[in-house]
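Support case: user asked for a sample of complex input and structure output to validate their parser. Sending the pair below.
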Amino acid sequence: MRVALFLTCVNDTLFPETGKAVVRLLERLGCEVDFPAGQTCCGQMHFNTGYRDDARPMARRFVSTFGGYEAVVVPSGSCAAMVREWYPSLGVTPPGGVFELTEFIVDVLGVTDVGAYFPHTVTYHPTCHSLRSLKVGSRPLDLLASVRGLTLVPLGGAEECCGFGGTFALKNPAVSAAMCSDKVRGVLDTGAEVLCAADNSCLMHIGGALSRQRTGVRVMHLAEILAATEEAS
Amino acid sequence: MNTFVGMPAFPEASSAAVSDAQLRYNLRKATHTIRAKRAAVVGEQPDWAALRAAGAAIKDRTLRHLDVYLERLETAVTEAGGTVHWAADAAEANRIVTGLVKATGETEVVKVKSMATQEIGLNEALEAAGIRAYETDLAELIVQLGDDLPSHILVPAIHRSRSEIREIFLSKMAAWGRPAPAGLADDPRALAEAARLHLRERFLSAKVGISGANFAVAETGTLVVLESEGNGRMCLTLPETLISVVGIEKIVPTWRDLEVFMQLLPRSSTGERMNPYTSTWTGATEGQTFHLVLLDNGRTSVLADEVGRQALRCIRCSACLNVCPVYERAGGHAYGSVYPGPIGTILTPQLRGMASPLEESLPYASTLCGACYEVCPVAINIPEVLLDLRSKVVAHGHVGQRVAMGAARRVLNSPRWLSVTQRSAGRLRRWTPRRLPGPLSAWSDTRDVPRPPKESFRQWWAANR
Amino acid sequence: MSSRDRILARVRSALSDVPREENPGDVPVPREYERSRTGVDVVELLVDRLTDYRAQVHEVSDVAAAVAEALTRREARRLAVPPGVPDAWLRSVEAVHDDPPLPNVELDSLDGVLTGCAVAIAETGTIVLDAGPDQGRRALTLVPDYHLCVVRRDQIVRTVPEAVGRLDPSRPLTWISGPSATSDIELNRVEGVHGPRTLEVLIV
């Protein structure tokens, strides 16, 4: 199956390893992956801050870049939600077939065991837009549960927001930091080596605090865990 | 008297709250308790989603034809012996109520907890006219005695712990009536008993009661008040004159519609299958004189906004406050209005207009996590309204942000400029600062800044595929 | 222009997006929720839910005897009684009839009040009074600290919609679910504030 990867501007610029992992993973699952070079940003930051006129050309660019594909895979819950849920309020019709990564693997490919091997203790943070906008439900957990060697430990207060919220972290730093510190405490209470999520923006936020506090807990995008194999390790 | 007038913008007010350890402890404990209770009683209702859909639709029907229903309500109340008054704004509502109380010759009134009368500052207006209003709901009493401000829709004194409440009762009750018993303990039972004794004689002798209403049934003219303590029944039943101040959005079309809301509201609000007491009355009842004051005070401006209109579905259950991670840390006072939490962030700027930096900051007092929308019993899409309000905030002013966002758009909407930026960042990665400058320092104060990679994904893809 | 006219004009202008020909009934209201349900026996359910509120509940066959027992347990004698309560319930009661209406202070000094009810809702543990002859005016069941309420089996419905359908909105209604309570202190439920602190229910 031929799929287009909409990596998102944050992953493209700051977390290329996530992109490489998604490509490895999807190719291993038999997909032919295309990365249309015309892609940039979904427009979420501008839209969420109120700048709809700035977001609209980006939404149109997304549609013209990805309109021709049968399936578009997005390794970010909030960017996928931006396209599917909010493009209509910009007067832009989203293309059909835009899937968040775990939706694509579980629903379209019909796979929960992706043949991954990751011998570490992992806890999972279900990011708000995956959870409540896309309603991905247990898909990410089902995928993690099938990873060989992986010990999944539940995160206390998992469904609570980490306090990132895009420009919220800059506009309301005190509340954002307080939310983040409660999330960090939840992560540390699990004793996990790795905090995993399907959205690098939230991981950048929680990970930034985990690193500042020298906790030694790593953050990893779900795709990087699912791409890991015995041969590669 | 303490008021919300002149409050600072949300970021400032909330950062003070965040550093108040006692407040954060109180709020966390209370909101987590009520969250669990709500989830349990909503979970046992098999048709919750259908009730929620019906509740939203009934409110939408009412709002789309509010003029029809207002006239219908007026007719029904009048036919049942009540008198209907119309108040375009807070000042007019206060004038009407003050005049009605004065006409009775009384200088004291007892009040049932009511958001509408808080919103219009009725107690202050009565005080200025020489009339003392006694709040009778336990939490309102705590707020009134403490010369404090409400911080929650359902439990206005949620920010107070039992020991703080004990202190307030011991030091302030005497000035308002019967003093607190000496040796008062800080156990909730003893505190509730102290409130009972403090208010008992006041109830039995009150001549004028003032209330709001949870619902007003247009078809029958019936008003509905849900409560827990019995203070509502006291105020609604015992006085010779009852004055109810009710927002024009409180209408439901028919009696039958209550079968939906009497299920949605208690479970969402106190997390009970049913609240201890609900009173319904139609017009002048059991020899009482009854006045209904219908209040606009900005509601018609909310109604005029096709996206924001859904905020008027609100039945003031406060479920959105109880699940909100921002409310839990910021506390109610930071929202600068009697409507705190998520519903306040969309209601206050719409009711008051973007009158000050406070109102402009409220639509940004959210991470858009969506927990509020998920629990709202009338399906108000709070994130949707927030996003719409944000676009209205940036439509005027905010020059610095406007310039920055314009620049960001030029980069983010061009594969070429994005690529150039990525390459520059890659080259400068060794100098990734630990502290960022300007507004970005808000990030780096508590979190490390990610170091840009040597090559972006698109560079890697171009080189390898 | 009166405020009435001003508000109605503002409402109409705010609703300029609503097509003129649209009627209120044109706005769809899906009513796919359940008006009735099946399940455990309604009496059993009502007892369970009332007990959950810490009301005292007894299933009885002889009302007069059950009333007598309840009063003995409480060491109560003088009860306010609405005019329509059957004399047969009152064998052991020192009934204080609310006719002419008793002053509030006197109500406050009584040991309690004995009434019937209009409807009881099993799922929510709710008793609804509609000021009928065996229930009396609203103050009667409010001021005394103890409310003894007799519920007939045929007055019990399972769901809230069934109850709403049976009730007459033109009568003043009081829905009672357990004794007076508050959650205003740290959201802990405490029974007993201004309303009757003890609710005792006899199911006949």
